[in-house]
Amino acid sequence: MNATHPATNATHPATPATGTPSDPATKTGAGTGTGTGTDTGTRTSTDPATNTRTRTALTVHQIARPTGFPAPDHFRFVESPVPEPAPGTVLVENLYWSVDPYHREMMDGDFELNAPLEGRALGRVIASRDPALEEGEIVFHRHGWRTHAVVRPEETRRLPHHEGVPLSAYLSILGGTGLTAYVGLTRIARLREGDDLFVSSAAGGVGTATGRLARLMGAGRLVGSAGSPAKVAYLKEHVGYDAAFDYHAGPVADLLAGAAPDGIDVFVDNVGGDHLGAAIGALRERGRVVRVGTVGQYNTPEAPLALFNHADVVEKSLRIEGFLVRNHLDVQEELYEFAVPHLRSGRLALDETVVDGFERIVEAFLSMLHGGNTGKIIVRDASQTP
Q: Contact 379/147 with Cβ under 8 angstroms?
């Protein structure tokens, strides 16, 4: 952890790596570019006092507040010695990192400047000073955008061993992304068999998870919006959506009316704005809106707010409810029980865009904000490359 060794830190601008994440029309891809670190994110350097080689670690700091879309110069890679765990803690070498839309919202004030960024990560315990966690265990934690993290056992969650389930799934369909979709469908929408759904940003992590889980739960017609013809095709050909449209192709209300001429029962909203307005108009009596996020405003805060006929909410007895997945962590085991058998049987597939190398984590994040991913975007340490 950098704060432990402030005198030895070296900083590197977050210059984007060459290349881009894989083709968003594929379920899983691996980037091939190079960047400002080694493949593993662990560097070696020479100690001038002893002329010996020492291992170093990398973290990512936010160094400025963005206006609109973030850029590489809002971030900096910071180099420091690999930290030593204190009594009651363990040292985790991270293997997978999650980059999520909510990070953009937090960049406006929640993240502290010139400090390591928070985020979900999976890693292996490589040094333990607490008997609660043994070396070699794989854990989930939220100490995020760094190659190494010192954590207390209570800040981690041991990953269950589900044979045949890849580690990346615990950041996608079995992680916060899948849990968001599952809670939205079961706790907020209270999905009923045969319900017709509309999902905005349907080709993203939560959108693909929502479509796949809803289909397994017996949903009726699934309609999604996405940002390109390739993503529209992916939703229909791979995820199980009955209809989908590119929201750039015209007014969302008209596109939704064409895709769901008989209306919808549930709207799972990741976008807000004109998608929310269109969906409220299309909802049937006792329809439900599940508010997950407002990604349409994260980078363009001046974007117009949703416009809709407020009388519809009363006259159709609509329910609009938002939630934070952190308030539903008690549902995690239930998600495992539901999803793991379907993963093993092949009925539930993973929708992931995988970018290789910690040095590309900023690039992966910025690519996601510009729609460069299909499904959940995950950064993978080179040691985990098949």
A: no
Q: How far apart are CA 250 and CA 234, in angstroms?
A: 20
Does 203 score more than 70 pLDDT? yes
Q: In whole angstroms, what is the distance from residue 377 CA to residue 368 CA?
A: 7
As to burial, measured by CB atoms within 10 angstroms (0-12 exposed, 13-18 middle, 19+ buried), residue 171 is: buried
The owner of tokens 């079961």 is 186
- φ/ψ of 346, rounded to 5, equals 90, -5
Q: What pTM value is reported for the model? A: 0.85
CA angle 356, 359, 362 (to 5 degrees): 95
Structure tokens at 185: 């469908």
Distance CA 202, CA 270 (A): 8
pLDDT of residue 91: 98
Q: How far from chain centre, in Å, is Cα 63?
A: 22
- The overall average pLDDT reported for the chain is 87
Give the closest residue to 8 by CA, choosing from 114, 59, 85, 79.
79
Q: Which two tokens stand for residue 352?
A: 């992931």
Q: Decide: helix, strand or coil at residue 198.
A: strand
